């Protein structure tokens, strides 16, 4: 779901598109690119690194789980010692030792 820029609620900008934060399940870093995985399963690719999106994502309720993943808190299904399981995303997200305390 792509939202028009004149919307009143906060939007998360990925490339030239803007999305409501609740539509984004996670941001995954892959070298110098960032993939945004949305609720509908679509994947949006940006040529910016994950660190470029980090400050905005954290302000909108996301949390960094690993050096390669920023996840949306509202989509967390289960947290284990080493992984985070999300609704709408089948693969477990690794949880780094340094960031584990933020999930408890």
TrEMBL record:
Claim: Flavoprotein is one of the keywords in the record: no
InterPro entries: LytTR_DNA-bd_dom
Domain HTH LytTR-type: 13-104
Keyword Kinase appears in the UniProt entry: no
Taxonomic superkingdom: Bacteria
Record key words, sorted: DNA-binding
GO molecular function: DNA binding
Name assigned to this protein: DNA-binding LytR/AlgR family response regulator
Species of the source: Runella defluvii
Lineage: Bacteria, Pseudomonadati, Bacteroidota, Cytophagia, Cytophagales
């Amino acid at each position: 779901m792509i939202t028009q820029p004149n919307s009143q609620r906060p939007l998360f900008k990925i490339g030239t598109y803007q999305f409501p934060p609740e539509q984004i399940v996670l941001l995954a870093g892959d070298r110098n690119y960032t993939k945004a995985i949305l609720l509908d399963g679509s994947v949006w690719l940006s040529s910016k690194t994950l660190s470029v999106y980090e400050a905005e994502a954290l302000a909108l309720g996301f949390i960094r789980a690993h050096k390669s993943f920023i996840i949306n808190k509202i989509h967390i299904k289960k947290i284990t010692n080493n992984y985070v399981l999300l609704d709408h995303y089948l693969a477990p997200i690794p949880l780094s030792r340094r960031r584990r305390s933020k999930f408890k």
